[in-house]
Amino acid sequence: MSRSTATRRQQTFHIEDPTERPRGWKKWNAAALFKIFLYFGICFVLVCQLPNTLWDPATRTITFTLGILGVWRYGWWFTHAVRAAIYGTFVYPRLRVRGEAEWAAGWRPRHLHFMFTTFREHRDITEKVIRSICREVESSGVPGTIWLGSGDIYDEDVISNYLRSFAGHLDITLRIIRQNQPGKRLAIGLVLRAMNRGPVEPDDLIVFMDGDFILGPGSIGKCMPLFKVYPDLEAVTTDEEVICIGPRWVATWLTMRFAQRRLAMQSHALAGRVLTLTGRMSVFRARHLMDLEFIRTLEADHLNHWLWGNFRFLSGDDKSTWYYLLKHGARMLYVPDAIGYTVEVIEGSGLDRMVQNFRRWSGNMLRNGSRAIALGPRAMPFFIWWCLVDQRLSMWTMLVSPVLAASAAILHTPAYLVAYAIFIAITRMLLSLFLYIYSRKVELAYPGILYFNQLINASVKVYCLWRLAKQRWSNRGNQTAGMGGGGLLNFYRTWMARYLTVFSVAALFLGVSLYSGLVQVPSFTMLRVMLLS
User: Fold this and answer.
1) Is the pLDDT of residue 393 over 70?
2) Calpha distance 245→242 (Å, rounded)
3) Distance between CA atoms of 321 and 326, rounded to whole angstroms?
4) Domain edges within the chain
5) pLDDT value at position 186?
6) Position 522 confidence tier, pLDDT thresholds 50, 70, 90
7) What is d(CA 108, CA 228) in angstroms, rounded to the nearest whole number?
8) 219-235, pLDDT tens digit by residue?
9) pTM of the full structure
């Protein structure tokens, strides 16, 4: 898609209020319910009419293995769903009432600081971002400062011209910090250092935003009172919707991802922590952000890896800020009724963009997850610590079922794949029923997309596990790190990563095959006969 075409299509943006989301019969209407019943009806007919090989003597152990694994994984999913319902139905509404009472009583933060970085963003998107900031400053009645981490004069001109033309009546200041080194992390570090030299006080609120994130109406106003209600609250992250300019299947995939995010965030927030302070938009109390350790963690975060040595993180600044606060025992919450809109312009292959996003997200999770787990359950609520452990386990458990199904098809009968496909269709629709609660509408494509999302995500995580230093970020100039180079050391590291990938996948394949009885361990007598023959 050309830049001009994308810009023309962006003019159709419709930014909704969270209260406009379809609820009740607007979402669960007759058409949606008919689709779900038709889906299960087709599955029922297939189960009745097609040969069922799940309970054949040769494959019965495989089915039991899949069942045990399914009980664990679906039980964990159900646990998240129950916790999310408790937070969304009971805990957060009471918290919101307390916050509204503080706001009605006249409490306001001293100052709002909006920190965001941008790099040659589409003009239409940038103007909508600034317009949303101005609206939030005006509605809250709190003076604001925009701290722009800039890498190009084009973005600076767009923002300054907009403020000069449309925001002259607001108490809002623009401060531009031009970065002298490439990279978003360094740009944020320069902005935070400038804040330290400026009029920022410990209890001021700092909004971290991406340059393509549009604030929803009232989103900042819903976040601010929570910092008064909880004096130990250090950060909140908010709900997101996606505006996708690209293939429809990518848009559906992203809406499903955000539905998953809502369910997980509410579950985590019940423990007073979250698993990431989303870089798209999070609100921080200023006192930690003014700490030099925080600034250095963000701008120069690194990992000392046994294979790849000492290397810096390219993306994942939101994971670095989260890790710092987690390490210091800070309370972090999720605000489900404060919404913002992420603009995704898909240019080129949608599948390639999907894999790139998974590589970035999975790499950030793996690089930060191990050190967060190392903090131990005493540094955080046990549930949050176990969620981190589960992230490491799930990338392997997700691969077990397709490996077992493929093995059964190869070693016994291809018909097992048919039974397995029906099993996947039913179970993924059951999981999707939970996601429909948090999605804008009922999408019949969710079960299939959910399965392939899990499969590709797990595969990418296994790939990234042995290549943590290899990073690519298509935004901000298509940055790369550790992607190549000559030398014997790099040759050794690359081939060792390939060997470990093959070894780990082969070990998984062999382990599940042995456990499920697909292959038998040769006895000592058989080995002796083979060696002597």
Assistant:
1) yes
2) 10
3) 9
4) 7-78+393-467+485-524, 100-387
5) 86
6) low
7) 9
8) 999 999 999 999 999 99
9) 0.88
Burial of 40 (0-12, 13-18, 19+ CB in 10 A): middle
Q: How confident is the model over 264-312, as pLDDT tens digits? A: 999 999 999 999 888 788 999 999 888 889 999 888 888 888 888 888 8
Q: What residues form DSSP beta bridges with 342?
A: 213, 242
- CATH 1.10.3720.10, domain 100-387, yes or no: no
Contact status, residue 497 vs residue 463, Cβ threshold 8 Å = no
The answer to which of 16-20, 371-375, 523-527 has the lowest mean pLDDT is: 16-20
How far from 157 is each of 149, 151, 161, 163, 165, CA to CA, in Å?
13, 12, 6, 10, 12
pLDDT in tens, 452-466: 999 999 999 999 999
Cα–Cα distance measured from residue 200 to residue 184, given in angstroms and rounded to the nearest whole number = 22
Mode of pairing for the β-strands spanning 233-245 and 172-178: unpaired
Mean pLDDT of 66-91: 92
**pLDDT for the residue numbered 474:** 63
- Cα angle, residue 283 at apex, residues 105 and 300 outer, rounded to 5°: 155
Which residues are bridge partners to 175 per DSSP?
Answer: 147
Asked if residue 219 lies in contact with residue 238, where contact means CB atoms within 8 angstroms, the answer is yes
- Contact indicator for 369, 55 with CB cutoff of 8 Å: no
Nearest Cα neighbor of 215 from 398, 380, 338 is 338
pLDDT of residue 387: 95
Amino acid in position 278: T
Q: Which residues pair with 116 in a beta bridge?
A: 148, 209
CB 314 within 8 A of CB 211: no
Place of tokens 């937070």: 87
Tokens of 310: 């000492």
Name the token pair of 323: 């890790």
In 3D space, the residue among 249, 472, 457 whose CA is nearest the CA of residue 344 turns out to be: 249
- For residues 288 and 226, what is the distance between their CA atoms, to the nearest angstrom? 17
- CA distances from residue 27 to 20, 437, 439 in whole angstroms, order as listed: 12, 9, 9
**Tokens (6 digits) for 235:** 């950060």
